[in-house]
Please model this.
Amino acid sequence: MELVERIISNPVMMEYVWKPLVVILILLFIVLTLVAYLVYAERKVSAFIQARLGPMRVGPYGLLQPLADLIKLLLKEDLIPAEGDRAIFKFAPIMSVVCALVVLAVIPFGWGVATITDINIGLLFILSVSSVGILGIILGGWASNSKYPLLGALRSSAQMVSYEVAMALALVGPLMFAKSLSMTAIVEAQRADHIWYLLYQPVAFLIFLVAGVAETNRTPFDLPEAEAELVAGFHTEYSGFRWSLYFLAEYTNMLISSAIAVTVFLGGWSFPLLDRLRPEHPGLFTLLSILVFAVKVFVLIYIFMWFRWTFPRYRYDQLMDLGWKWMIPATLANILITGAIIMIGQETLGLTKVTGGEYGERLVVPGLAGKAYFIGMAWLVLVPLTWIILAIINRRSYDFNLRAQRQIRLPERPATDDVFGKV
Amino acid sequence: MVAHRRRNWKQAISRFLLLDLIKGMIVTFKWQAPSKCYTVQYPKVRPRIGERFRGAPRLNRDPETGESLCIACNLCAVACPENLITVTEEVREYLDEASGKVKKKRFLADYLYDTSRCMFCGYCQDVCPTYAIELTQEFELAIYRRKDFAWTWEMLENGIDQPVYTR
Amino acid sequence: MTDKPEKPKSAPKVSAKKPVASSEPPPITDDPIVDRLRQQFPEAVLEAIQLDWPTLRIARDYILRVCRFLRDDAEAQFDFLTDLTGRHIPDAEKPFQVIYHLYSFPRNARLRLKVDVGQDEAIPSVVEVWSGANWMEREVYDLFGIRFENHPDLRRLLLPEDWEGHPLRKDYPLLFRYNRWTQEHLNMIPFDPEGEYTGKFE
Amino acid sequence: MYQRDLGATEKGSPGIREMVLNMGPQHPATHGVLRIILKLDGETVVDLDCDIGYLHRGVEKICENRPYTHIEPYFDRLDYVAGVSNNLAYIEAVEKLAGIEVPPRAQYIRVILTELQRIASHLLWLGTHAMDIGAVTIFLYAFREREEVLNIFENYFGARLTTNALRIGGLFYDTYPGFEEQVRAFCRIFPERLNEYETILNENRIWLGRTVGVGVLTAEEAKDLSVTGPVLRGSGVKWDIRKAFPYEVYDELDWEVPVGENGDTYDRYLVRMEEMRQSRHIILQALDRLPQGPILGKVPKMIRPPAGEVYHSIESPKGELGVYLVSNGTSFPERLRIRPPSQINLQALRKMAIGHMVADVIALIGSIDIVLGEVDR
Model:
């Protein structure tokens, strides 16, 4: 008895087991509820965009719809294809959802206690874990032993490989200012500098946004599950709760993508003028910081949804085109030009200084003149230069020359074939 | 007239500034106001049905005497492209009040209308000389048993019991 | 429930009334295209009459050559096959008829060709003249059983490959619910008028 | 099961390159029960075969066993999104065969109704086509406008899709009070809504990428394949039956035939969008000229056309809808052939799709605008 008590009240256990467990449970509860309501939000947003009402029956304004959906999904029959690989088929959605949830550990939802952990390789951790999550999709598509899921899985893997690169490279730009991979340090850098990195790095933000949409398999990049072509893509054969795990993973990924974008580009939980509260009312500040973070994330999620319900879907080869011919060159150009801008600002003009602090050294632009220089350079030089570089690289592509595209892309018709004869 | 596409510098610049995408997004954003919603909450709110709507069949009665208007002339059965109406007639004697004599006349014995095959073309009501058979505005025809699709004379006169949903 | 007995009903009942007498359609005498056709293929045009469109009756062996001539000829220019269909006339000596509706874009004119086909006879396919004839000929083959020679892909179009009979023939019964194909493939249960069909899974 | 084996395995033993993908008959983008068997190399279509007939009901056989007056409701069920156009094709064929005159008021109303139907059908096409390419919102916008047309139909004939609208010799119903205002109100809002769709789609780079240069059908190929309607016009052939063989009062009205240049999916899209505008133009003109008078001509009680045959075709929203009617002098037709425009247009799918990707096959099915009720009959 005493032993048990000692184990329970051991400060090491307290610090490394019980406290994290409680935090994890609370976080999971909140996030999973949130994700359920994200589905509701998606349905409502799509309905309003389409001049409809959306779910209205379960509860007032359909607010209990996620609950009803959950019950429905739990009660549904769990089908496994007869010729499929049963073990992998069952394992794949779990893998997808676990990877999505693990990432939540390092996201700074707010100041202080609201950040669960802060590891100094936060961004790398997120990028690496979330690329493992794609394995769940590939395995699920493969294990279904069906052609549509297989096609979806293959599309998904190719898409992930190309957009992961663009996503990671887009983050390099802001990191040059923050000089840290720790998520909290990035937020602190922006807060201390009274700036959002969106202003310094518009190109990187745009590319990150697009890559984030692509990462989360949403229209216009929802090729893995393109419902018109591949029925439902990789989860065609899934049903019931396993299907909902994929769904959960997708929406969690959307949450994570926007959370990273908010942290890196939009100042995370910080907000101008809010800092004054910190010394006097730390509790209130924490709460407000969570709120600020949530509002920013939801604005981005709304934009994701808005994209989805406005745009048509890319074709597979166009998606690859966009990834490799536009996004990756743009990120590389962005890194190069940003480096040059920082060099000039730092060495020639002396507008910046590197300071150390709680979270290691970072680049600080103290004066208004320095800020004006960096913002001006970003919008007046960085954006046009990137476009020009892209234009030179892609001068033959269809975005410039539809006529050329027509000549290039006319399908090669086989002269004769033995299978069906003429027509 | 040739529906041609414009390709010029203006368009190229607008593509660089993503204007083609933003314009579309503005349109979808504009429609979000709840006042522009087109949904009719069906079981709560009944949709407006056109006056000439051809829905569930009905056999009309004479509003004064309460007798069926049908004279068993069989025209509707002939007019039906699907041959789904079965009119059974019987010849009965009755007392003619005007002359006070006993006369013989055809009366309706049974009327069967198979709604499962009905195309709601309206030929039966067009051809009816006494406006007895009529396609009403009732459109809720779902039924649990397949044999209940065959509407008898009684069902045709009184309508069928449809559950009324309120929410 | 009105369950009709499965008796084959082929001919309409109301044919007892006498048909309305119609005047004979006038023959075509001075159409340059028909003259050229007659010149080119003296035995091809069996009959030429003026219905709503000029209608030519063509000998079966000539149809491919006539079609190619009509398409390529500088005066005819029938470059479009509007429709190709068949007809079954049970009492005739040659019970089948294949009917072609041609159209000329430059001249905005139509032409109808008819070819009589006997029982178990095949007719040359015109797919090599107009590729659009492919599915139309397949459909005629499917529904009438007229075979087309040299068709690249003569399969049934609408009905299953192992269906028996050709539905648009006049001797094909109208009500044909229980046949061998449905027994093999559809697992149909005979309809019981007294039975309860609830629509639920049983 | 009945299709030929497309030979996925016969080609190479160690490295099998081609995969056979069975698309349909239950597939979200095949617009019904169309089955397409695709032979794929990666995602590129090497070959495809359409398997139709899942909805075959033998309408032609049924019609041979019905009197002329009973056939019209069956025509509603052919192209079930364009019932009035189908009715018109049959009714006019019978009128032509029996020599029945239609009073001018009925002719004008018929024109108004068929053009409304064309708008409704094209709106449905736009919605489904855009949804196949991924723009789901357009689908609901287009259906919203289509609903307005269907409301007019409901008020007019009492049915929304299976209209059974016309009668041999004219119309059954005269206009209802408020008909003209309702049609005019629709015509007022319609162009701006159409502009909105075009704002979303016309210049959108994704839409352009998905449609421009996809499924090119040259004018020669289109004529060779007997393609009609917007698909033919998209290929640059300026041909419309309403101009070539004017029926009803189309020759008195002023309108134009939109034509594409390149014969790709985008041109077909543009042609149909322009056709909707032209239809609205026709409707407004016909409303202005709508004469008073009877709506039903002199029709014999028993319709028994003299023995003979007639081929009559109209420009339905899908293309040339022809009716070849052979009469033997009785009240039953001897032979009734329906020339189904979307079935014959569907033949061109193979020519268009080979060399493109799976996603383009979907876009092409949408751009041909098929309705399986008509393809299979």
Remarks:
- Chain A touches chain D through 43 residues (CB under 8 Å).
- Residues 401-423 of chain A have pLDDT under 50 and may be disordered.
